[in-house]
């Protein structure tokens, strides 16, 4: 499993950013307006999410637009389900 994925999700700020981006794509300023932390802190959280491939970035003119990468979230969710299912099968053996 991808350690960057879990490290990225360890922060409640980053989880909230993902929730926001599930609703619609936003630029960094729009994302920052939902938080009381500084804009540089929001930018750092966005970079961690980008490195973990949980968000994608698209340039539109002078703005960077962030979107959630649902493919990665779904793939990791499936890996978690598989991991739990495998463990259950092993632990249920006599």
TrEMBL record:
Residues 1-88 form the HTH arsR-type domain. PROSITE patterns: HTH_ARSR_2 (PS50987). This is Winged helix-turn-helix transcriptional regulator. SUPFAM superfamilies: Winged helix' DNA-binding domain. GO terms for molecular function: DNA binding; DNA-binding transcription factor activity. InterPro entries: ArsR-like_HTH, HTH_ArsR_DNA-bd_dom, HTH_MetalResp_TranReg, SdpR-like_repress, WH-like_DNA-bd_sf, WH_DNA-bd_sf. Keywords: DNA-binding, Transcription, Transcription regulation. It comes from the Bacteria.
């Amino acid at each position: 499993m991808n350690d960057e994925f879990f490290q990225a999700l360890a922060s409640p700020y980053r989880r909230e950013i993902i929730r926001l981006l599930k609703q619609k794509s936003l630029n960094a300023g729009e994302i920052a307006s939902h938080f009381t932390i500084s804009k540089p802190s929001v930018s750092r959280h966005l970079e961690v999410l980008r490195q973990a491939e949980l968000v994608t970035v698209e340039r539109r003119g002078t703005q960077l637009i962030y979107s959630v990468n649902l493919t990665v979230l779904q793939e990791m969710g499936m890996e978690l389900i598989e991991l739990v299912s495998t463990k259950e099968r092993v632990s249920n053996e006599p």
